[in-house]
Every structure is written in structure tokens, then in C-alpha cells.
TrEMBL record:
One of its GO terms (molecular function) is dihydrolipoyl dehydrogenase (NADH) activity. This is FAD-dependent pyridine nucleotide-disulfide oxidoreductase. InterPro entries: Class-I_Pyr_Nuc-Dis_Oxidored, FAD/NAD-bd_sf, FAD/NAD-binding_dom, FAD/NAD-linked_Rdtase_dimer_sf, Pyr_nucl-diS_OxRdtase_dimer. Keywords: FAD, Flavoprotein, NAD.
Length: 494
């Protein structure tokens, strides 16, 4: 006989979206259950985004000390920049504590839906008035390779390495691929990165990626653009599993349309014989993701679109009792918007008549400030070394849209605060050609995320807003005033 449990809200998945939805709904007074099949935290907090930044933070601390105190020495081979089991425990402990303090019930396991209101989890039958699906996404490989088959890995294994590999091929020059290339090359791993597209971080302005590219190449990264993975075969070298890879490069596709096979000599010394082959310890896939749909989803009367589950601006699926958040709805695929989705969905739930009497006094106030991610500026931050970040329209986008614009640029090396600590990087402000309206602001440099995040709070900016602001002195954020004081140049800065 199953144990019957009744809830106002059932949340599936304790990643960015699910955790925020369950915590905020429970805080507001809804009887909330959350179910997680793996570790708490999902891709955002446990398996991807946050761990990468935690490792990068350690590296940045080292880099900064080294720049400021040239006599500082550390044996990098003996220093552990990777995360420890205790770090992951801390992440899970915070989620557990927050959920428990809010009053949400946490269950582990992978159950299935019998209907939109009934979920079976081992010996439990959970009934819920409303359901939030937040089961995220997972890496999808190509080239017929299966993940979790050593040495083919995803971000999950990459953030939890106990021992670093000697060499690695990263498939995908997207944000994730570029971040991993930065941290692993700094840590001494021989990194190759390939993409069928013709640039590193496609879509990002080239003057920004140029600074990153120089840094990656300085750390020995081989960047293979317009290149595809043709064949990969698991084999053994010195009693260790490695992957023999054939990559095909269409380097001069635009000029000659010729294709040629490329062989890259490995750090481990494979021989070179004309046609090039790559032998690496690990292949890290970053190049595609697919949604994780919970079992029984076909019994919930939901519609799907190309990206994932179809939702309206309230994040409601085609079944009004069911919401789909974060990577599952496929709208943006980032944690910042997944969290925003959660706040919007909970705000919608709070306004339902069936829940109004359950809300705690503080949470009865109508919330009017929330906007869907689609309706607001989404800031961007790429946590490479150096970082790239900003918001609004980039020059690439402005050119594609044929919008005339002016640019004002200023360099971190000329800012008081970073005069001796930062040689590289700049900010550029893109202004409308005929007015003072700011169309976009983009940076490349060290530790940008806090600057970008606070600036995008007021993304609807005019140049005078940057000039009127009184900046804390001395800070790196003053680069905005310095750039705002420059004479604008019409058109492209690269
Ligand atoms: C390496 C990497 C770096 C990234 N960096 C950034 C970044 O810097 N900034 C940013 O904004 N975004 C970043 N992202 C993207 C971000 O991590 C995701 O967009 C975000 O995690 C999506 O949140 P989510 O809640 O939808 O899914 P997730 O965080 O993946 O959570 C889904 C949860 O649901 C669980 N689950 C799945 N199926 C079931 C089931 N049937 N039953 C119970 N539980 C289930 C999963 O185990 C998981 O815990 C990064 C992604 C990667 C891979």
C-alpha cells in the first residue's frame, strides 16, 4: 500500500530553477515537495556553472597575487586548484538547509507521473494541486560516442577530476568550451579545442575574443576552427585508455572550398605521418544539450516545440496546472534566466485563488517588478581567463541589424585601480549614432561579473547616466566613467 501525500506544489528537479521555485513557494506558505534524482544543485550549482567558477576563482587569486607580488612562488604541480569533496558537500548542504528552513519537503529518487496531479515515487503517491517541472538538460554527444564511457566525458566529470589528464580535446568553442579551455590549459593540461564554426565564441565581437585567444594560445591551447570530429576510437597507450581522433578541417572553406584532414601531434608523442591524427587522454563534449523529461510526461497533456516544453509568459505549459522552467523550456539555457523563471512561476502561483489564504502575510503583497527574461536585458558573462561580459547589443549584432552606432573605448591598464594589476582588457560603450542612448556595453578583462551584474540593473541607460554616477574611487568600475568621457568614434572598433 502506497503512502499518500498531498501538496500544494510538487517540484521536479533541485537545480537552479527547481531549488528557487521550491524555496520561494515554501517560504510564501505553500505546502511544497521537491524531488531530486541525483545530487542537489543540478548543472548550475553542482555539475557545471558554479564549480567551474570556484576553480577559476582559485586560479584568479593565484594570478592576481603573482601579478602584484612578483616574488610570490607556488609549485603549480603541487597545488590543488580542483574542487574537493568537502566543497561539493558545502553546495549540497546550503541547498538542504535553505529548503528545510523554508519548510519544503525534499525527496530523493526518480519517480513517474500517473497524471498531471499524481506522481509516484517508490512507496509514495504524491498528489499536488500544481506541478513545476525543472528537470534541466544533459549533454548530447555526436560522432557516435557514448558519454560516461571513459575517456569520453562531459562537464560532470570535468568539474570533479581527482587527477588532471595530460591532454584533452574539447568539442565546442561555445561559452562552456572556452571556460574549460581556460582553466585546464592554465592548470597545465594540453588542450585542443575544435568547432565546425569559424571562430572562437561565435557571435561574440572579435576584438573581445582576440584578447582571450591570445591568452589561450599563450597557455598552449590549439584552437581548431572550421573543424569537425570525423572518427574517434578508444585505445590504450602506456596501459591507459586514450582516444585516437581524426578531425577534419575546412580551414580555407571560404576561399578554396577544399577539405583536408589534420593530424595534431600529441603531448604524449604519437608519430606524425602526413595525415594528422590526435591522441588525447579525454574528450570533453560541450557542443549540445537535450532536455531531461520526467517519466510519465506523456500523461500530462503538454505540448512541445523545437526548444523543449512549450510555455507561455507565465512559464505555464499547455496544461495550466503545470509549469516548465529553466533548461527544460529551452528558452535561454542559462542559470540566470532559470532562476528568473522560478521567481515568475512562484509569483503566478501566489496569485491563484486556491492558494491566496495560505500565504504568509509578507508574501501577500502583489509583486509587480518581475519580467520574463524575454522582456528584459539579459546580461552576459563568460568566465574565461580573462572574462568577457556585458549587455545589450554587441557590435556584431549592430552590424547585422544595420544600425548606425558610435563607440567609446577605454582600457583597464589606464585605470587607476588596475594600473599595476591588469595589462589586458577594455570596455566599449556602443551609443546610438544620433543620440546619447546606450545600445550596448561590453568588456574583456579580469573579474567582470560583479561590474556587469550591477550595471545591467539599470540597463536602460543614456550616456549621461554613466557620467552622473559618483563612482567609488579607486575601483575598476571607474573604467565606465573614463570610457564615457572619451570622444565617440563612428562605426566599428574592430
Ligand atoms: C559547464 C557549464 C557552465 C555553465 N555556466 C553558466 C554560467 O556561468 N552562468 C549561467 O547562467 N549558466 C551557466 N550554465 C548553464 C546552467 O548551468 C543551466 O542553464 C542551468 O543549470 C539550468 O537550470 P535548471 O534548473 O533548468 O537545470 P539543472 O540545473 O540542470 O537542474 C535540473 C535538476 O533536475 C534533476 N532531474 C532531472 N530529471 C529528473 C527526474 N526525472 N526526477 C528528479 N530530478 C530530476 C537533475 O538531476 C538536476 O539536478 C552552465 C552550464 C554548464 C554545463
Amino acid at each position: 500500500m502506497k503512502q499518500k501525500l498531498n501538496y500544494d506544489l510538487l517540484v521536479i528537479g533541485a537545480g537552479a530553477a527547481g531549488f528557487y521555485a521550491a524555496r520561494e513557494a515554501a517560504r510564501a506558505g505553500l505546502k511544497t515537495a521537491i524531488v531530486e534524482k541525483n545530487e542537489l544543485g543540478g548543472t548550475a550549482f553542482y555539475w557545471g556553472s558554479l564549480p567551474v567558477k570556484m576553480i577559476a576563482d582559485k586560479i584568479k587569486a593565484y594570478q592576481k597575487t603573482k601579478k602584484m607580488l612578483p616574488e610570490f612562488k607556488l609549485d603549480l604541480k603541487k597545488t590543488d586548484f580542483l574542487l574537493q569533496a568537502a566543497d561539493f558537500k558545502k553546495i549540497e548542504a546550503k541547498i538542504k538547509k535553505d529548503l528545510s528552513q523554508a519548510g519544503a519537503d525534499l525527496f530523493y529518487g526518480e519517480g513517474h507521473f500517473n497524471s498531471a496531479h499524481e506522481f509516484e515515487l517508490k512507496e509514495k503517491l504524491i498528489k499536488a494541486e500544481r506541478v513545476i517541472l525543472a528537470s534541466g538538460s544533459q549533454v548530447k554527444t555526436n560522432a557516435g560516442l557514448e558519454l560516461e564511457q571513459e575517456p569520453i566525458i562531459s562537464h560532470k566529470e570535468a568539474v570533479s577530476f581527482k587527477k588532471l589528464p595530460e591532454s584533452m580535446l574539447i568539442i565546442g568553442m561555445n561559452i562552456e568550451g572556452a571556460e574549460f579551455a581556460s582553466i585546464f590549459s592554465f592548470l597545465g593540461v594540453k588542450v585542443y579545442i575544435l568547432d565546425q564554426k569559424d571562430s572562437l565564441l561565435p557571435g561574440i565581437d572579435q576584438d573581445l575574443t582576440k584578447v582571450l585567444k591570445q591568452e589561450l594560445e599563450k597557455n598552449g591551447v590549439e584552437i581548431m576552427t572550421s573543424t569537425t570530429l570525423k572518427k574517434a576510437e578508444i585505445t590504450e597507450l602506456k596501459n591507459q585508455k586514450v582516444v585516437k581522433v581524426e578531425v577534419e578541417s575546412n580551414l580555407n572553406s571560404k576561399q578554396t572550398k577544399t577539405t583536408r584532414a589534420v593530424q595534431v601531434e600529441t603531448a604524449q608523442g604519437a608519430s606524425s605521418t602526413g595525415t594528422k591524427t590526435l591522441i588525447v587522454d579525454k574528450i570533453l563534449f560541450t557542443a549540445g544539450r537535450e532536455a531531461n523529461f520526467p517519466a510519465g510526461i506523456e500523461k500530462m497533456q503538454l505540448a512541445f516545440n523545437k526548444q523543449g516544453l512549450q510555455v507561455n509568459s507565465k512559464l505555464q505549459t499547455t496544461n495550466p496546472a503545470v509549469y516548465a522552467l529553466g533548461d527544460l523550456n529551452g528558452n535561454f539555457g542559462i542559470a540566470s534566466t532559470a532562476i528568473n523563471d522560478a521567481l515568475i512561476a512562484v509569483n503566478e502561483l501566489k496569485q491563484l485563488d486556491i492558494f491566496k489564504n495560505k500565504l504568509k502575510a509578507h508574501y501577500k503583497k502583489p509583486v509587480t517588478h518581475l519580467k520574463t527574461a524575454a522582456a528584459q536585458t539579459i546580461p552576459l558573462n563568460i568566465f574565461t581567463l580573462p572574462e568577457i561580459g556585458g549587455f545589450g547589443l554587441s557590435e556584431t549584432q549592430l552590424k547585422a541589424k544595420n544600425i548606425a552606432y558610435r563607440v567609446q573605448k577605454y582600457y583597464f591598464k589606464d585605470c587607476w585601480r588596475s594600473l599595476i594589476s591588469q595589462k589586458k582588457g577594455f570596455v566599449k560603450i556602443m551609443l546610438a549614432a544620433e543620440s546619447e542612448k546606450i545600445l550596448g556595453v561590453y568588456f574583456v578583462g579580469d573579474q567582470l561579473s560583479e561590474i556587469v551584474s550591477s550595471l545591467s540593473l539599470t540597463a536602460d541607460l543614456e550616456l549621461k547616466d554613466l557620467l552622473e554616477n559618483i563612482y567609488i574611487q579607486p575601483t575598476r568600475t571607474e573604467i565606465l566613467r573614463e570610457a564615457a568621457l572619451m570622444e565617440p568614434k563612428l562605426g566599428s572598433s574592430f
